[in-house]
Amino acid sequence: MGRVVSLGSINVDHVVHATDAEITSFAECYDWFPEQGHTVRVDTLPGGFSVDADETRHGGKGANQAVAAARAGADATMLGKVGADHDDYDVLPTLAAAGVDAAHVGTADAPTGSAYVFVEAGGDNRIVVHPGANGTVDDAYVAAVRAVVRDADCLLLQNEIPVEPIASLLTDLADDPDRPTVVLDPAPPEGVDPLLACDAVDVLTPNEHEYAAIDLDDYDGALVRKRGGDTLIVETPDGRFTVDPPAVEPVDTTGAGDALNGFLAARLAAGASLREAVETAVVAGSMATRESGARNGVPTLDAVRAFQAGER
């Protein structure tokens, strides 16, 4: 069992099953409203922004990826911050119940981060993120949990917490010969450039929107291009290969990329090659779309193995 640490966001998701007319209305009212399949971060929601959520779930890319790593068989730990209201949503007990160690999660003087997930009829989604407590992750917190990070086999990072303390952490790790393998999900892509310039980032996992938005001039690690239901492209300093995702009937694509990242980290932490890790992770990400919710459909490693063997 490999050790995976996810340092990132912890959210409460407000899910809206939206009609085409509702999506059009939001897009006309707010020029920052995300395009299909995209995530945008809004530090202050406008006063007129109001939605009636169909359901409330647990989310955040960091937490989702930690849960996926645990289901992939890793010894998973979550690092990040929640608000004093976290008990109202059972945020930490839910992580623990999923097999994730949340003992080092901090509490901030801010509400727990939130996300508004707009799910369209075809299963595609648009996500609006409000950072809340996630925005309070600072140098002091990262320094306090550095030993936890250092003991991991794989470190999962996203871009839903402040960049500066993470860039400092990666600078420190770059010269450590025993550091964890670092997997970075550049989502959302805005402001992620300082992390791409860090030598400690080993694997970068953008989707097509993020791939088009980021500057890769200073990045020389492995690139895993997530392309939805299309062929996934992997580029490394030693060559290039592709992996085709299995055909499934998607219900909700929310969290599919998180499932892929969590499995990728878990398999790398267990000592798998990049190709084997990607092949397993792609199946997990596809399987996760068959149920509604960012975590509900994330399979176990045994289920992925059975799927790969043709037991669907």
From TrEMBL:
Gene3D superfamilies: 3.40.1190.20
Keyword list, A-Z: Kinase, Transferase
A molecular function GO annotation: kinase activity
Residues covered by the Carbohydrate kinase PfkB domain: 55-300
Keyword Methyltransferase: no
One annotated Gene Ontology cellular component of this protein: cytosol
The organism's place on the tree of life at top rank: Archaea
Pfam families in alphabetical order: PfkB
InterPro entries, alphabetized: PfkB_dom, Ribokinase-like
Family to which the UniProt record says this protein belongs: Belongs to the carbohydrate kinase PfkB family.
The protein, known as: Ribokinase
Native organism taxonomy: Archaea, Methanobacteriati, Methanobacteriota, Stenosarchaea group, Halobacteria
